[in-house]
Amino acid sequence: MKSPKSSRLPVLVVATAYNAVATRLGEVAKPLYAHNAADMQTGELGDIEVTLISDDQVITCYEMKAKEVTKSDIDLAILKVGSSGKRINNYIFITTATIDKDVIEYAASLYRETGGIEFAVLDCISFLRHFLHLFHRIRLRFLDAYQELVLTEADSAVSQPLKELFLALRRAAEADSEG
Which CATH number fits domain 9-178: 3.40.50, 3.40.1340, 3.40.630, 3.40.1710? Predict the structure, then answer.
């Protein structure tokens, strides 16, 4: 996650997680925009928008950060949601950096102030670990879908050496499980 040209990996992790369990959850991640498309250009609230399978109303939004999430980041998200006219249930930041306890508490304190929108700040690896724990029976489906997204992502978003490293790690893990 700290390698050059790896900032797109957390986005792909969360999108893959939702799409792997879409029928079980009744929720799906909307198609992703290019990694260099700004939210202002796309009209999206964040990097990933999740809808119910049965309609296109966004219920959860994920914002990925390859840096520490700050209170200012959360305040900006509140402004984006407020000006969008969309009514969402959750706005979740996923970060690859450490998370300040005050930021977690600030995010949690906003539920009443925002009229029932849950704000949360999570780290990417813990999110993935928790997801795979809950849905351990679909791990291979997740890995297959993640591999497809990683390999088809532009090299400017996920470098070729990272793609090759992913494949090598996957082959090694599968060889260990067979032996």
Answer: 3.40.1340
